Automatic annotation (TrEMBL):
One protein family per Pfam: Cob_adeno_trans
Transmembrane intervals: none
The UniProt record lists the keyword Cytoplasm: no
Pathway(s): Cofactor biosynthesis; adenosylcobalamin biosynthesis; adenosylcobalamin from cob(II)yrinate a,c-diamide: step 2/7
Protein name: Corrinoid adenosyltransferase
Organism: Paenibacillus nicotianae
Reactions this protein catalyses: 2 cob(II)yrinate a,c diamide + reduced [electron-transfer flavoprotein] + 2 ATP = 2 adenosylcob(III)yrinate a,c-diamide + 2 triphosphate + oxidized [electron-transfer flavoprotein] + 3 H(+); 2 cob(II)alamin + reduced [electron-transfer flavoprotein] + 2 ATP = 2 adenosylcob(III)alamin + 2 triphosphate + oxidized [electron-transfer flavoprotein] + 3 H(+)
Top-level taxon in the UniProt lineage: Bacteria
Amino acid sequence: MNIYTRTGDEGQTSVIGGRVSKDDARVEAYGTIDELNSFVGQALAIANNESFADIQEQLLMIQHELFDCGADLAFVALDESKYKVHAELAVQLEQWIDQYEAENPPIERFILPGGHPLAASLHVCRTVCRRAERRVVTLGAITTININVRKYLNRLSDYFFVIARTANVRSGITDIEYIRSQKVFRRD
């Protein structure tokens, strides 16, 4: 089997139900999710420490779920029965967020991305995830999409923020607050 097909040489690509331009909003949305998945893979490679075993397991699950997100967005013709992303995935992320947030010290201000290499990598995942979410919002404004993908990405960026902080905590590294930030976070 050849990896190259030459079918995209004219700037078109196949999606489920047809062909579109490679710069189509649909391709931009699932392409950004694919980019995010690569950064999640990088974070997973960095998390090669026993103290991050739970995070490793979750990141691997997330990689599969991101492929599901991309598949759901690749449908040109609406076929909800074939969607792979459902509301339960966002609920699972919320449970993980609550679990890890309990490990983290309270914060009042924005923090600077960084610290342990895993934390820094997870902050990159967070920002790419936010861009993917914006691309999905753009796509949703012009066509019908699986809204659970958008919800999942919204929760996922929060997850990356929280576990980046957890990676620092578990590594004995203190998050650095943005010194010009007002107090923006409150624990209720």
